[in-house]
Amino acid sequence: MISRKLILHITCFALSATVLKTLAEDTPPATTFTVGIGAQNAPRYSGSGERNWLVAPVIQARDGAFFFDSLKGIGYDLQTDNGLYLEHTLGYSLGRTDKNSMWRDGSAKLKGMGHIDATANTALAVGWSATPWLSFEGKATLPLTDGQGVHYQTSVTLLPLQNDTDTVALQSAALFGDRRYMNTFYGVSREQSSRSHFGAYQAAGGFYGVDSSLTWSHQLTPNWSGLVSADYTWLDDKAADSPIVEKRGGTTFNLAVLYTF
Length: 261
Hints:
Elements: H1 9-25, E1 32-43, E2 51-63, E3 66-69, E4 73-79, E5 84-93, E6 96-97, E7 105-106, E8 119-131, E9 134-143, E10 151-162, E11 166-177, H2 179-185, H3 190-195, E12 206-219, E13 224-235, H4 237-240, E14 249-260
Parallel strand pairs: 6-7
Antiparallel strand pairs: 1-2, 1-14, 2-3, 3-4, 4-5, 5-8, 8-9, 9-10, 10-11, 11-12, 12-13, 13-14
């Protein structure tokens, strides 16, 4: 989801940078284990006008096509000689709370909205690395343990710089959700309206926003590396018209230092 990206999102763009570099170099990924620490400044939830700092450990492991990621979960990715690739993961979403939280989406301003339960999910991404510096991807994420709806995204990624020490990635993604997903995270039911100060709102499914990011990874030594990312999310009317949305645009900043064995 495009609610506030928790600090563990750092593992996502760290892994993405590794996969993109692998695609660009057309070589199979090695067996690696990565640990590190990351910091993030982000909105408290998707559409929130409040911000919050988080600090958390980063853990990644990869053995050929199989990987473990602190946020994505466990999964595998398959790549072909013509640039097509597939990634499948089993992961976990922390949901949202109606209190201020240091480790999950949520704010005291949502009091009365109740909690969105944490849920296990599965995600399937199919992409094409058209050139060593350009790739396209479609991704669907489905909940497994709770009926929170399905969300999708289509993205394009550009690598304007890539060498032995630096990788810069620009990515823009169009965001979509079915009706259940949209009303889980942006809707206000009559019951929620009666418990909170928000008016009732029913969100339609479909396109609901754009997420754009700029990521820079730098190899400090053969083992140490650093990552910096800035991410901007813009919400379309289907989400932005929700009474819980204070700002339709939100920026997330990530920083991480990693050590790879």
